[in-house]
Amino acid sequence: MPDRNVKLGDIVLRVRQVNATGNRTEGRSPVLVFLHDSLGCIETWRDFPQRLADRAGLNALIYDRQGYGQSSPFGKEARTTSYLFEEAEMLFRLLEALAIERVVLFGHSDGGSIALIAAAQRPATVTGVITEGAHVFVEEVTLAGIRQARALLASTNLRERLTRYHGAKTDSMAAAWIGTWLAPEFRQWNIEACLPLITAPVLAIQGEDDEYGTQAQVESIVRGVGERARPLILRETGHTPHREAAEATLDAVSEFLVSNAK
After folding, report:
1. Which pLDDT tens digits describe the chain residue by residue (262 residues)?
2. What global pTM score does this model have?
3. How many helices (H) and strands (E) does the chain have?
């Protein structure tokens, strides 16, 4: 289906709906919703959502968060340390506008953190969670990775590559990410208190060589959620398993979805 815009008050979000080939659910099962990372958008997922939707037999939804891709730019208000909670609320506004009642969330990096927050807030809506490189607290390795990205934006063609996806929003998007995470007050950011509130099954994925976080993130997720969560550490993989280890990620996630997406 073609991309379309969904208006939420003064904000417009670009949305793409993906229909699974041979959908096994006939509309009764949850929709698989993809939440992109801090520099991502619909297009940076490439063909992964379609491949996973087909494997699992679930229809999917991808969208550009505000400030990214083809959605509205950021508002005038400065981003706060609670921005990921605000993104979870925006997710629910979008689902209500589209009359989607039940979802499984697949979140990458920032998107993974949003998925965990959303699952804690509305357990009746979120029936499953898959995270990739999610953060539940701030680590020095994360801040070092962001400082490196800041240097690459200034010294390589990274900004040009991002502009292909985000256009005139590129600088504000990068500044929001870098400025928020490197702000002294963000050092204490932590969402571990949300984890015990999650009732949905969780698959927490991380690359063994993730340049933005250690396995302590996955350990915290599994410990906080409890027996409903299981970890998956992929060898020779960095921060983007769905691209760097696509087949292993597809196998693990599709198995998880077939078992848990009811």
Report:
1. 689 999 999 999 999 999 998 655 555 689 999 999 999 999 999 999 999 999 999 999 999 999 999 999 999 888 999 999 999 999 999 999 999 999 999 999 999 999 999 999 999 999 999 999 999 999 999 999 999 999 999 999 999 999 999 999 999 999 999 999 999 999 999 999 999 999 999 999 999 999 999 999 999 999 999 999 999 999 999 999 999 999 999 999 999 998 887 6
2. 0.97
3. 9, 8
Q: What are phi and psi of 89, to 5 degrees?
A: -65, -40
**Any idea what DSSP says for residue 54?**
H
Number of domains forming the structure of the chain:
1
* CATH code: domain of residue 61: 3.40.50.1820
What DSSP assignment string belongs to 22-49?
T-SSTT-SPEEEEE--TT--TGGGTTHH
By three-state DSSP, how is residue 126 classified? strand
| Alpha helices per DSSP H over the chain | 48-56, 83-97, 110-121, 140-155, 158-166, 170-182, 216-225, 241-244, 246-260
Question: What residues make up the domain containing 166?
Answer: 4-260
**Which among 78, 41, 44 has a CA at the least distance from the CA of 63?**
41
Task: Confirm if 76 and 94 have CB atoms less than 8 A apart.
Answer: no
Q: Give Cβ neighbours of residue 146 (< 8 Å, ≥ 6 apart).
A: 177, 178, 181, 182, 212
């976080």: which residue's tokens? 213
Q: What is the DSSP letter of 147?
A: H
Residue 220: both structure tokens together: 């915290």
- Copy the structure tokens of residue 65: 């968060």
